[in-house]
Input
Amino acid sequence: MQVGSSNLVDGLFATDTLSKIGQLGKTDSAKPSAAAEAARKAELAKSSQRAVLDEIREKGIYAWAQEQKLEKLKEKIEAEVRSANPDADPATIDSEVARLVKEAMEQALKTEAAEAAKRGEPAKPMIIDISV
Output
């Protein structure tokens, strides 16, 4: 008996589609590996960081930080307004948010001016704390 030419050996080592029956359920288009997913997330984070740094370079750190604080304040006030008036229309919410943001900014400026006056100093530009 020749082992190399038997039907049994040909059947076991054949490369036709029937020989791949043991591979049913396995696909070539599986999810990306954990390493590939981590690399993709790292690239997205790096891209986002580059965009923020470009924005800071364009506007300057002080203006960028003021803008960030204002955006956080708007988000916070908008969430409060929406929770208080869930059925209000968007235009009403926007006008209420704008009014409350303006009031908050005016109050912060008045507070800073009053504190400077107590110290006997002229009002200085506000040092901002961007953690809201």
About this structure: Residues 90-119 form the longest helix (30 residues). Residues 12 and 19 are 7 Å apart (CA to CA).
